[in-house]
Amino acid sequence: MKILINALPGNGDALMFTPSLKILREKYPDSEIHLLVMFRSVAEMFGNSPYINYIHFIDFLNQSKLSSFKEILKLRKNNFDVSVNIYPTNRAEYNILGFLTGAKKRIAFSYIKSGFHRFEFLNTNLIPEIRNKHNVLQNIGAIRELVEVNDNEVGKLEISLDKTALAKTRDWLNSLKVSDKLIVGIHPGSSTLKNHIHKRWDKEKFIELCNKLINVHNGFIFIFGNEFELNREIKSSLGENAILVSTENYMDSLLRQTFCDLFVSNDTAFMHSAAAFEIPTVAIFAYTNSRELYPWKTNHRIVREDLDCSPCFYNSPSPASCIWQGNDKWKCIKNITVEKVFEACDELIQEIPHDSKSGN
To answer: CA 252, CA 169: separation in Å to the nearest integer?
Structure first.
């Protein structure tokens, strides 16, 4: 059987399909599994996956529609038996693409915030979106159209890393001479698509938090993300107790993230990769739904404001918006204090075995 996984969203969403991917491989060991992506970093993240036979990268965002259409027609020649649109993919383009790839059975989702104009009818099997259900389990619901799956079979998120590259990264870590430090990774940025810049906790609060972790817990700060200007501002305030670890190569970041003892992040892909590496994680949530997106199967703490209006963001092409005005606008993220986040960090730090700190 030939299976096409349409993993067109970003790294975090694609990563939350990995438990389903593993189950598909186990249930269909002789199947030919293809992965279609439109972000190069997603292709790189799955490059060493033992569950995938072929990865197809189509640069939909940066090439002409004609070029993309030609590549889709080429992909169609594989004569797929099944295609699966991973969760969430609530855009008409994703459903049209699934149809054009020609799979006989096309599995996708029927979204709460949707309509006829999203072309969900182009799929043969529609799975209803369930509010407050974790994205991992939403995806499991999709593959139940192909296999019987018990909840106890659903595993952790997975990223397979190159062992040689990992050894070189350990050498890089040793060169920093921080073996006596608590390595705390932070991701202070976020995507700006769909107005998600408002998921970001204030940089001054990140700085204050990091200084407390440095002073109280002998911390050393790894700053992640490609928001380089923001990260340089934070680094300049922390001095020699912090380092910018992300480069233009996404896999460098993932390799270095494995050596963190603790991770503090907004709701981003780095939060989910921290979960994949089973790093204790403090997740700072604004208007997105922590019950659907919490760090899966790793020790974690959620920090959010329990407002009547939050979470308010649904999976749809519409950008994030706020019902409040003036100083109250985006108060779901603004009102989160350094004290609350530090308390969550402190709780997790107390649970880290002493001999596992710094990964050395």
So the answer is: 8
- Count of the separate structural domains present in the chain: 2
Q: Are residues 179 and 297 in the same domain?
A: yes
What's the rounded Cα separation, in Å, for the pair 274 and 305? Answer: 22
φ, ψ for residue 182, nearest 5 deg: -90, 115
Is residue 360 over pLDDT 90? no
98 and 173 inside one domain: no
pLDDT of 354 over the 90 cut: no
Task: Tell me, yes or no, whether 131 and 179 share the same domain.
Answer: no
What is the rounded CA–CA span in Å between residue 306 and residue 346?
21
Q: Is residue 245 located within the same domain as residue 319?
A: yes
Looking at the structure, do residues 320 and 348 belong to the same domain, yes or no? Answer: yes
Please determine, for residue 358, whether its predicted confidence score (pLDDT) is greater than 70.
Answer: no
Query: How far separated are the first and last CA of the chain, in Å rounded?
Result: 44
Pairing between β-strand 105-110 and β-strand 32-37 as defined by DSSP bridges: unpaired
Tens digits of residue pLDDT in 187-246 = 999 999 899 999 999 999 999 999 999 999 999 999 999 999 999 999 999 999 999 999
pLDDT digits (tens, 9 = 90+) for 23-63: 999 999 999 999 999 999 999 999 999 999 999 999 999 99
Do 181 and 266 belong to one domain? yes
- In whole angstroms, give the CA distance from residue 137 to residue 270: 20
CATH of the domain at 15: 3.40.50.2000
Element (H, E) at 71: helix 65-76
Please say whether the beta carbons of 274 and 299 come within 8 A.
no
What is the pLDDT confidence band of residue 355, given thresholds at 50, 70 and 90? low
The answer to whether position 269 is within a domain reads: yes
Rounded to two decimals, what is the model's pTM? Answer: 0.95
Q: Which structural domain, as residue segments, surrounds residue 296?
A: 163-359
